[in-house]
Amino acid sequence: MRDVLCVIDCRTGDGDVAATLRSVAAVGWEAVLLGCKSPPYSDSGSIREAEELADCLAADEKRWLCALSPGDLLSSRAAEAYGAFGRGRHEATVLYGDDDLTDSRGRRHSPHFKPDWNAELFAHHDYLSGSCLLRVGRGDLADLPKEGWEKALLTRLLRSGEAPAHVSQITHHRRARPAATVPIERLQFATAKRPKVSIIIPTRDQADLLSMCLEGVRAVDYGEVEITIVDNGSEAADALALLREAEQHGANVLRLPGPFNFSALNNQAVSRTTGDLICFLNNDVEMPATDWLETLAVQAMRTDVGAVGPRLLYPDGTIQHAGVVIGMGEAAGHAHRGEQPDGPGYFDRARLPQYVSAVTAACLVVSRAKFDAVGMFDEKAFPVAFNDVDLCLKLNQRGWQSLYEPRATLVHHESKSRGQDRDAEGRVRFARELTALQARWLTDKVRDPFHHRHLSRATTSFILDL
Fold it and tell me: Taking the CA of residue 287 as centre, how many other CA atoms within 13 Å lie in the half-sphere pointing to its CB?
């Protein structure tokens, strides 16, 4: 790719402009020095000067523009990487690459291997500015702010163009990056009227867990909530007493004894409920706050969203679930498992709302209409494991993307009521369901678009695959 104009903006800071110019010349691109008082010309390459951004392009000119800060460098393979990817993608107006940082001695570190386009993540973390190409004309450069003009231009292009395309290799070496903004505002419906939510809780014995879960559900700060407890054959006296008490307090108790089939239990419960939204909830989930349901419900009502899941923590405070990555363990795995919830982790991913490939049904909110449209949970192929992954992938396939929402944070006492399938029968069943998942969704072959080919598939942590 040769039709690229690099705009090196000296108006809001200075740095090693000469090094930036040399890297531009090395890949054969043209440079414009914007607002440089004493431009340090390099000994090669095409260089122009401009006082205003709009002056960088002629009136009838349209080309790829690359914004660089003084001191930032292009990878020696940037032109090749962007060119190979850009050919045949004439509809794209934004191409972006991965990047790393350089210190004052030119040593590279902290590579950012980015997801494919994730509009929800971008709303909280600008991972494109400073490492992208923008297809623009002179008119696109009008009326942009002096500071943050690239982000403003990106926003303008995103409103009218195709989704940005990701060149999944390092194309930029940078001195600094935009920081993520971790949202803290509470999500609320704009009006007092809220959609009715049907909360479905499968259970068997384990009265202490169910009691904890029901206490949190009853304390929820929401409007109309319908509670359905699916009893899968409880026999313990304290559990039976708790179920009777729950009925007296208005919960529906659906008694479905027999072999545990998570998909069938929930599907039958859905058919007996009336809410606009369905909240699938494990009986071993604890709710430290009261606003979690509205946070998830607001997101689930969006036309672009399918299943919504919260951040789940272990009782020790570490992360149990921050979205699901397809391909981990050749199947699917919970992202960022075991990490600290308030730490930066991998570029703040565990702390930011974002599209994901799937979320866990330990707590999952979805509209009834969308759930019905994709055929509900698959009772035959996925009676116990991967039913939530399959559901989310079916929703994604219809254009309803799964969403991870960490502003809702719950505690999950994982699988205490059912165990971990360590017996022979459980291992055989799990193997069968894993085979079904791989056959249907190719999870042993495909790459999750929100992960990266240079990140390990063997771990739930986002670490380099060395």
Answer: 24
Q: Architecture of 197-441 per CATH?
A: Alpha-Beta Complex (3.90)
Q: Rounded to the nearest 10 degrees, what angle do helices 237-248 and 207-218 cross at?
A: 20
Cα separation values, 364 from 163, 185, 280, 358, 406, Å: 27, 21, 5, 10, 13
Query: C-alpha 125: how far from its chain's center?
Result: 11
Q: Which helix (H) or strand (E) holds 248?
A: helix 237-248
- With H, G, I as helix, E, B as strand and everything else as coil, classify residue 185: coil
Cα distances from 335 to residues 125, 319, 415, in angstroms, run 18, 9, 18
Q: Is 76 helix (H, G, I), strand (E, B) or coil?
A: coil
Question: CA 252 to CA 272: how far, in whole Å?
Answer: 9
- The b/e string for 370-393 (b: 16+ C-beta within 10 A; e otherwise) is bbeebebbbbebbbbbbbbbbbbb
DSSP secondary-structure letter at 363? E
> In sequence order, which residues have a C-beta less than 8 Å from that of residue 203 and are 6 or more positions away?
209, 210, 229, 230, 231, 232, 234, 239, 283, 417
Provide block-wise average pLDDT over 10 residues at a time, the chain (466 residues): 88 83 94 79 66 87 94 95 73 92 92 98 97 94 92 92 91 95 93 95 97 97 96 97 97 97 98 97 97 98 98 96 96 95 93 98 98 98 98 98 98 67 83 96 96 93 86
Q: Can you say how many angstroms the Cα of residue 329 is from the centroid of all Cα atoms in its chain?
A: 19
Q: Which pairs with CB-CB distance under 8 Å and at least 24 residues apart come from 181-184?
A: 181/124, 181/125, 182/124, 182/348, 182/351, 182/352, 183/124, 183/352, 183/353, 183/407, 184/407
Q: What is d(CA 112, CA 101) in angstroms, rounded to the nearest whole number?
A: 9
- What is the residue extent of each domain of the chain? 4-174, 197-441
Distance CA 457, CA 99 (A): 21
Q: And the tokens for 285?
A: 């989930």
φ/ψ bin of 399: left (φ > 0), alpha (ψ from -120 to 50), beta (otherwise): left
Q: Is the CB of residue 114 less than 8 Å from the CB of residue 166?
A: yes
Domains 4-174 and 197-441 equal at CATH topology level? yes
Domain 4-174 has CATH 3.90.550.10: yes
pTM above 0.70, yes or no: yes
